[in-house]
From TrEMBL:
Location of the protein in the cell: Membrane
Name the record gives this protein: Iron export ABC transporter permease subunit FetB
PANTHER family reported for this sequence: PROTEIN ALUMINUM SENSITIVE 3 (PTHR30028:SF0), UPF0014 INNER MEMBRANE PROTEIN YBBM-RELATED (PTHR30028)
Family per similarity comment: Belongs to the UPF0014 family.
Membrane-traversing stretches: 6-27, 39-60, 66-85, 97-122, 128-148, 183-203, 223-244
Domain of life of the native organism: Bacteria
Pfam families membership: UPF0014 (PF03649)
Membrane-topology descriptor: Multi-pass membrane protein
Source organism of this protein record: Desulfuromonas versatilis
Signal peptide limits: none
InterPro entries: UPF0014_fam (IPR005226)
Keywords assigned by UniProt, alphabetized: Membrane, Transmembrane, Transmembrane helix
Length: 269
């Protein structure tokens, strides 16, 4: 029997929010000391999601390309800022490198899926484009963070190895190859693990949401498989762009390793 979507009342939300308060109480009882952060994060979640909900409701009603593109641009900018906030030791030209990688990698993957696979009409249909882009950018953000952080760590830890390779006649590309390869492997681990566990350990959010809204399970599965393939491709493209651009900043034009102390880990360039 198809009952349609079951709406949640304010009382329902208040009831489930009690679980957050219970978690805060447990943290206080055990002396973890993160009660304020938990409460602040949960309140931000509620406010942010309701705000996004009302904005999306307005954009769906407008049916215009301009606000959709503005939303996508803001998502990209916030993604760059989020990556910057998570990476402590930043590579040279950090913001330029990460911004270009996210806009090209995520933008290309979103365009490929929405226009060449799904064939959206109109191409900016906000009901599809915004949530799909959000999933692609959100997952790619994790890969970008791991790639940037790992590359900086590898370049620092392998400094002697890289300098030895340069002394033996290697180019900067050859000397940094192991560091780039290790960082790329680290960036792909979450996507690989997620694909391996999906359907057995957990049901993914997109598929669950479609089933709850009344979509046939097989159709929901097809969409989930498709979006996971696109997310994996986007994570790989974004991470690789960061690594390919990023490692060059550690070398001079004469293939000499720069002094790491020259880089301001907070400014980023």
């Amino acid at each position: 029997m198809n009952r349609g979507i079951i709406d949640l009342t304010t009382a329902d939300l208040a009831l489930v929010y009690g679980l957050v308060l219970l978690t805060v109480g447990l943290a206080r009882w055990r002396g973890i000391g993160q009660e304020r952060e938990m409460l602040w994060a949960s309140l931000r979640m509620v406010v942010q999601l309701f705000a996004v909900g009302y904005v999306l409701h307005l954009i769906f009603a407008l049916q215009s390309a301009a606000p959709v593109l503005l939303i996508l641009l803001m998502m990209g900018v916030f993604a760059v800022q989020a990556v910057a906030g998570r990476v402590k030791q930043k590579m040279p030209r950090f913001y330029r490198v990460v911004a270009l990688a996210i806009f090209v990698g995520c933008g290309g993957a979103t365009f490929f899926f929405c226009n060449l696979v799904i064939g959206l009409s109109p191409w900016y249909d906000p009901r599809y484009l915004i949530p799909l882009a959000g999933m692609i950018i959100g997952n790619s953000m994790t890969g970008a963070t791991l790639a940037a952080e790992r590359l900086a760590a590898e370049m620092k830890e392998r400094r002697e190895e890289i300098e030895t390779s340069l002394c033996l006649g290697a180019t900067s590309t050859q000397a940094a190859r192991s560091a780039v390869r290790s960082a790329f492997r680290a960036a792909l681990i979450p996507s690989v693990n997620s694909m391996a566990a999906m359907g057995i350990v957990f049901l993914p959010g997109m598929m669950t949401g479609q089933i709850l809204s009344g979509t046939e399970p097989i159709i929901a599965v097809k969409y989930q498989i498709a979006i996971m393939c696109v997310i994996t491709g986007s994570v790989a493209a974004t991470s690789l762009l960061i690594l390919v651009q990023g490692y060059r900043g550690y070398f001079t034009s004469n293939h000499q390793l720069r002094d790491l102390s020259d880089f301001n880990p907070r400014a980023g360039g």
